[in-house]
Amino acid sequence: MTELLPEPYYHVVFTLPAPIAGIAYYNKAVIYGLLFELAAETLCTIAADPKHLGAQIGPTLVLHTWGSALTHHPHVHGIVPGGGLSPDASHWVACKPGFFLPVRVLSRLFRRRFLEALERAHRGGRLQFFGEYARLADPAAFADWLAPLRSCEWVVYAKRPFAGPEAVLAYLSRYTHRVAISNGRLVALDERGVIFRWKDYRATGKTRYKTMTLEPSEFMRRFLLHVLPNGFHRIRHYGLIANAERKDNLARARELLQAVPDPPPKDDAEGTADIQSAFTCPDCGAAMIIVDTFARAPSIRAPPLPPRAA
Fold it and tell me: Which helix (H) or strand (E) holds 210?
């Protein structure tokens, strides 16, 4: 909360085409890394152009690799304040109300830069190919495979501003510690397989919400598609809020916006005392002390295993 600025926040999505998503499964660290790097570079480059915004912005990018049906669909969500610091940091440059950056311009630059970086990765031997993609190890075959991707549309989508800082945090919290599916979407596990709820974005109204049944092996295969390489960071900050200069840049931005930052969080002792004092006895008014917390019962469990033979 202390890092959010009192400005409208915009939501931008960069999606990889299906052919690149196909080879991304075998090259997660390389291609997901390029997705982060080039989405951020595209946003910062177009925003710095005086023809568009002419300012240094601070995007936060969140990696998302799954569709509602657990299919492999790598893309990044960008959360960006609606403006940035001028090149000399003398004033705050706000974007037009309700409009951040032109998505067509973002899409063209992102496509060109990503394909250039993918070619360099192939020449450097950083990509590996298996199965139906094994032929792409040959440079000529890889060049032919890339050719159609230079002319197809790459999806970059800018959504309307968030309602406020709380909405930004609520959105990010859905992706920070979850992989592919939450327990709340699991319906049953029985002789038919794993049953879970999913949203069909091609349908409309209530018919968008459906249930799907998968064999356990297929469910596990889809789930494991989205396990990231060890140490890979799913949330990254760029521009104004990059780790090296975040503190100074945020202080300067608040100064120009005439905003006062929220107080820092209290230490554990003070925080615990405040939480405990928030609960009072309805009869005598004395502070109630939490002595134990019960975990919520799991919503689903596997069927019991058959008894082992003696």
Answer: strand 209-214
Residue 303's Cβ-count burial label (10 Å; 0-12, 13-18, 19+) is exposed
Q: Rounded CA gap, 222 and 66, in Å?
A: 9
User: In which residue are the tokens 């975040």 written?
Assistant: 246
Helices (H), 182-244: 216-224
- Please write the tens of the pLDDT for every residue from 49-87: 999 999 999 999 999 888 888 888 899 988 899 899 999
Residue 263: pLDDT above 60? no
Cβ within 8 Å of residue 11, ≥6 positions away: 77, 78, 79, 80, 158, 159, 160, 161, 162, 171
Residue the block writes with tokens 């202390």: 2
Residue whose C-alpha is closest to residue 13's, from 90, 81, 74: 74
What sections of 209-307 are H helices per DSSP?
Answer: 216-224, 246-257, 268-277
| Gap between the Cα atoms of 168 and 79, Å rounded | 8
CB 87 within 8 A of CB 54: yes
DSSP assignment string, 281-298 = -TTT-PBP-----PPPPP
Q: What is the pLDDT of residues 129-147, one digit of tens each?
A: 998 999 999 999 999 999 9
CA dihedral 218, 222, 224, 225 (to 10 degrees): 140
Read off the DSSP letter of residue 70: S
Q: Give Rg (Cα) of the chain.
A: 24
CA distance 9 to 82: 6
